[in-house]
Amino acid sequence: MADVTGTTGTLVLAGTPIGDVADAPPRLAAELERADVVAAEDTRRLRRLTQALGVHTSGRVVSYFEGNESARTPELVEALTGGARVLLVTDAGMPSVSDPGYRLVAAAVEQDIRVTAVPGPSAVLTALALSGLPVDRFCFEGFLPRKAGERLSRLRENTDERRTMVFFEAPHRLDDTLAAMAEVFGADRRAAVCRELTKTYEEVKRGPLGELAVWAADGVRGEITVVVQGAPDTGPQELDAEELVRRVRVREEAGERRKEAIAAVAADAGLPKREVFDAVVAAKNAEKAEGTRKQP
């Protein structure tokens, strides 16, 4: 029960099975029974999980999902400052990783409340391990934007990413996403589509992005994780001014300030910042001159 001595409580982030309920960590059952408050992304799924584990939650159960995350966070922080042990669970995997949780963790940290975790299954790590692609360095990109133009823009930000990349995607958008990846990264770039991980119909489809896009065009069901090999390390590249300007603009469109974008492009290309800066200025002046000539 909640601590009545005035000591702050503890926020526990608990990983839940991504498919097979037998993968639930033993500590999850203990925390479900011990918690004063259980915040669940879907209370119905929580009920099914506790039934499968054969445990009973004696604490208060509240919903905590994307739609009420902002409004409910202060309530949970209040419980924590009052000494409660609050357990946060999502539908599958670790809270705050493309799931609700970040706001609550940040708010708890701000109040010097202890935050701990019950490690559990992860679609990101499971897909990486099964992909057959390099896993010594990787980055997680989550879900891509739904709109085609925004999706292409986000992918172009990763054109030169050398780490293996992991994405989540909805099954009805998978074919468009793989086609966009083939366009940006190249049809021959190796990738793996991991479907229904740890479930009955688990499937891992490996191959070049172009072939995977064709395969997905017929329709794919289930929860999807896509793993894409990073860009090859070709060493220092001889880039012309046009390419330098293009890379700076990609970074600017992604939200970087021009100064930082120029510095990053120069570092990647192994060039002095001044050389990239001069290319950007020259391109800008050329655009102005072209615009002047077109005026009546």
**Helical amount:** 40-55%
Strand content bin: 15-25%
Q: N- to C-terminal separation?
A: 79 Å
Biggest sheet character: 5 strands, parallel
* Shape, principal axes of CA atoms: globular
Uncertain ranges: 1-5
Written overview of the protein:
The chain has helices spanning 26-34, 43-53, 69-81, 102-110, 123-131, 148-157, 174-185, 209-216, 241-253, 258-269, 273-294, and strands spanning 10-14, 37-40, 60-63, 85-89, 114-118, 138-143, 164-169, 190-195, 203-208, 224-228. It is of the alpha/beta class and 296 residues long. It has 11 helices and 10 strands. It is globular. Strand 6, helix 6 (148-157) and strand 7 form a beta-alpha-beta unit. The strands form 2 sheets. Strands 3-2-4-1-5 form a 5-stranded parallel β-sheet, sandwiched between helices. It has a 5-stranded mixed β-sheet with strand order 6-7-10-8-9, with helices on both faces. It is 43% helix and 18% strand. The model is unreliable at 1-5 (pLDDT under 50). It comes from Streptomyces californicus. Catalyzes the 2'-O-methylation of the ribose of cytidine 1402 (C1402) in 16S rRNA. It is an enzyme of class 2 (transferase). Keywords: Cytoplasm, Methyltransferase, rRNA processing, S-adenosyl-L-methionine, Transferase. Belongs to the methyltransferase superfamily. RsmI family.
